[in-house]
Amino acid sequence: MVSETFLHAWRRWNELPDPPIGWLLGTARKVIANRVRGAVRNRALVDRVALLDAVAADVADHRGLAGPDAALARREALERLAALPGDQREALLLVAWDGLTTEQAAAALGVRSATFRKRLSRARAALSSVEDPPPEPGLPPLAARHPIKETS
């Protein structure tokens, strides 16, 4: 952090006040704040990716899949989860992953219990009614893009 602070000072050498100690301390404070914000954002991203990977792994475990089949099932589950509208995805994750009751999840989101139950119902219906996720425009279906080679 010291080196980054002095790098800023070197780049603004002609603009530094005399004495520069106040400017250096203020710049160091801002460098530290930027690092803390970056670490918080990075941790949130890591947690979110771990959450989605764990949800997808549960799907593969539930189906009794292993190896490439499990990887494909995890990817399909993540694609289906990502395709849900944000409010439905959030409802599903609060109940399925965080283990909240519908009343607790509704309170956490600041909505009525009936509203939350409807979102959850729609999310579950959307996930159970879809056999294959729709392919991206111009791309073959997921199974065709990533064929599983059977070994004897």
From TrEMBL:
<dbReference type="Pfam" id="PF08281">
    <property type="entry name" value="Sigma70_r4_2"/>
</dbReference>
<dbReference type="InterPro" id="IPR013325">
    <property type="entry name" value="RNA_pol_sigma_r2"/>
</dbReference>
<keyword id="KW-0804">Transcription</keyword>
<dbReference type="InterPro" id="IPR036388">
    <property type="entry name" value="WH-like_DNA-bd_sf"/>
</dbReference>
<keyword id="KW-0805">Transcription regulation</keyword>
<dbReference type="InterPro" id="IPR013249">
    <property type="entry name" value="RNA_pol_sigma70_r4_t2"/>
</dbReference>
<comment type="similarity">
    <text>Belongs to the sigma-70 factor family. ECF subfamily.</text>
</comment>
<dbReference type="InterPro" id="IPR039425">
    <property type="entry name" value="RNA_pol_sigma-70-like"/>
</dbReference>
<protein>
    <recommendedName>
        <fullName>RNA polymerase sigma factor 70 region 4 type 2 domain-containing protein</fullName>
    </recommendedName>
</protein>
<keyword id="KW-0731">Sigma factor</keyword>
<feature type="region of interest" description="Disordered">
    <location>
        <begin position="124"/>
        <end position="152"/>
    </location>
</feature>
<feature type="domain" description="RNA polymerase sigma factor 70 region 4 type 2">
    <location>
        <begin position="75"/>
        <end position="127"/>
    </location>
</feature>
<dbReference type="InterPro" id="IPR013324">
    <property type="entry name" value="RNA_pol_sigma_r3/r4-like"/>
</dbReference>
